[in-house]
Amino acid sequence: MVKTRSGWRLHLASVLTFMVVAGALVWTLYPLLWVVLSSIKPEQDQFAIPPVWFGSRLTLDNYIRFFQDASFLKTLVNSTVITTLSTALSLLLGVPSAYGLSRFHLRYKDILSIGVLLVRMLPPIVMVIPIFLLARTFRLLDTYTVMVLVGAFFSVPFVIWMMKGFFDEVPTELEEAAMVDGSSRAWAMWRVIVPLTGPGMAATAVLSALIVWNEFLYALVLTGANTRTLPVLVNSFVSEKTVNWGVMSAAGVVAALPLVLFGLSIQKHLIRGLTAGAIK
């Protein structure tokens, strides 16, 4: 009788868990579904009342009109270059910093950690005017340099906090053994500890790339004709008189697709990285 009641409770818990997860997925994926359907529906069906979810005549006209935009390829290259360089710079600066906070007993370690967290919590809009003035002073407007630096500025604190947690999970005896064999601290970190936190670094890299790839405010303010990114191009289909919802939806799907494919390609490492430390 006890086993039956226990089994019934486990079954009920599983059903409730499934319902909660399903509800969260519907809530999360509904906007994406709306964008995808709007991108392949003709204009007269996009705001029909009642809404036409399925059964509408499918069309690729919105994608054709978007790809015909002369600046599409250039903005795609700009977004790819800026995201790649910003993510690489964030990892290059953030990984050693996270390792130092994890391994060294610094006098003001807690203050440094709180400072990093405060930078991450700072609303990006607060820094728009100072960064714009600095970029104009140093003649960095409409250059890759300013966008890469801004992307790294907002990603490095995230990398530090993510990687610090992964480094804390690795026993210190591993690099100590490497140093006993003659390795330096830096060599032990890059050749022993960093490979062990590879899944965590993959998850951190994907999330950092998301931050930079989706950046709109700073891209709108700091870029120009030469360095305009995909989010800014998507916004160009909004005018004072009208909004071209079909083409803008197609642009949104195209802008999201590269990172979706990137995430799927490293899905195994991403899941391992996000769940690292959950089970000991």
Description:
With 280 residues, the protein is an all-alpha fold. The chain contains 14 helices and no strands. The longest helix has 38 residues, at 2-39. The radius of gyration is 24 Å and the shape is globular. The mean pLDDT is 83.
Write the layout of secondary structure elements.
Layout: H1 2-39, H2 43-46, H3 61-67, H4 72-103, H5 109-121, H6 128-137, H7 144-169, H8 173-180, H9 185-196, H10 198-213, H11 217-222, H12 230-235, H13 245-265, H14 267-274
Helix pairs in contact: 1-13, 3-13, 4-7, 4-10, 5-7, 7-10, 8-9, 10-14
Please indicate the count of domains: 2
| Cα-to-Cα separation, first versus last residue | 33 Å
In terms of DSSP E residues, the strand content is: under 5%
- Assigned CATH superfamily of the largest domain: MetI-like
As a whole number of angstroms, the C-alpha radius of gyration is 24 Å
What is the general shape?
globular
Tell me the major beta sheet: none
SSE pattern: HHHHHHHHHHHHHH
CATH T-level fold name of the largest domain: MetI-like fold
Give the tally of β-strands: 0
Q: Portion of residues in helices?
A: over 70%
Q: In CATH's first tier, which class of the largest domain applies?
A: Mainly Alpha
The tally of helices reads 14
Which structural class do the helices and strands define? mainly alpha
The overall pLDDT, averaged over residues, is 83
